[in-house]
Design a protein that fits this description.
- The chain is an alpha+beta fold.
- The protein has one domain: Sandwich (Jelly Rolls), CATH 2.60.120.
- Helices cover 30% and strands 26% of the residues.
- The protein has 8 helices and 14 strands.
- Helix 1 links the parallel strand 2 and strand 3.
- It is globular.
- The two termini are 16 Å apart.
Length: 296
């Protein structure tokens, strides 16, 4: 897999450039300075959030529990303060907090980091937080609603692999879902030969940096240390992506969940088989026709 694509970096002051060269072209970019001049810039860290959210019970995700469908709930509850103590340790961590709406528990946090002006829209009232400990990973997937995401890192570093939608079949995407069955912790091109034809970005997001991820971009995330980020969203870009998102959120998601519950392990086994078949067909097309898949 070729992860040598270089991502552009711009400053928060270059708003016109962002819309012209990145948002309108649906191209990822890292933006610096969006948190400057906000209260969060000088306040937000794990200790501060622990003091504000305290012993509120939250649903955490356990990476040791394998999921065979998309958009799942948490695995078990624990106090937010205990969760923070766990992820800040300098050791392997398997729990993470995903799509956490901290503003629901502490509304004035939104005033400390409101949605940046470049991402204002009908979804700007909610900012979801993401927390994880050292080496916590999030499987390769794209967001089910196809929305655009502005992912701002506040504490700790995070490694992110970014890949365009055009590689869906070569990434072993499962039918009715938005995730890959390939293991990106230990990339094995013998087991998943389609990955040899994939091109993408391999970046490290530092505190104070914001990543713009266009709708439908695949992303695999690894928390390099105990850290957290906040993501604001914009609705899917264009009619095509909007319809794809609606289809996933309605027909595909609930069909998948129904078949998952009624067919048991036979359904994920079938999805895995189809994912391999689609990848094999995509490989043959490239090899037979000499076609190249070029990342945008």
């Amino acid at each position: 897999m070729d992860l040598s694509l270089k991502i552009d970096r711009i400053d928060a002051s270059e708003k016109d450039l962002f819309f012209k060269a990145y948002f309108s072209k649906q191209k990822p970019v890292i933006i610096s300075g969006l948190v400057n001049n906000t209260a969060a810039a000088n306040k937000w860290n794990l200790d501060y959030l622990k003091s504000r959210i305290g012993d509120t019970e939250v649903m955490v995700f356990d990476n040791a529990i394998k999921k065979t469908t998309a958009y799942t709930g948490g695995d078990y509850k624990m106090k937010f303060s205990e969760f923070v103590d766990q992820i800040r340790k300098d050791e392997e961590c398997k729990v993470r907090l995903f799509l956490f709406n901290a503003f629901k528990y502490c509304s004035d946090l939104k005033k400390e980091y409101p949605c940046p002006s470049i991402f204002k829209g009908i979804l700007d009232k909610v900012g979801f937080m993401f927390f994880g400990g050292k080496n916590t990973h999030v499987r390769m997937h794209f967001d089910i609603d196809m929305s655009n995401v502005l992912h701002t890192q506040f504490e700790g570093k995070k490694r992110i692999l970014l890949i365009s939608q055009e590689y869906n079949d070569l990434l072993y995407k499962t039918p009715f879902n938005t995730y890959s069955i390939a293991d990106f912790q230990n990339i094995d091109e013998t087991k998943f030969p389609g990955l040899k034809y994939v091109k993408g970005y391999d970046i490290v997001l530092n505190p104070g940096e914001s990543l713009f991820m266009p709708g439908g971009y695949w992303h695999y995330m690894i928390y390099l240390e105990g850290s957290f980020a906040v993501a604001y969203r914009k609705i899917a870009y264009g009619v095509k992506n909007t319809l794809i998102g609606i289809n996933y959120l309605t027909l595909k998601l609930w069909t998948d969940k129904f078949l998952n519950s009624t067919l048991g392990k036979r359904w994920p086994e079938y999805k895995t088989k189809v994912a391999h078949q689609r990848a094999e067909a995509a490989i043959k097309k490239i090899e037979n026709e000499g076609e190249e898949v070029v990342a945008s």
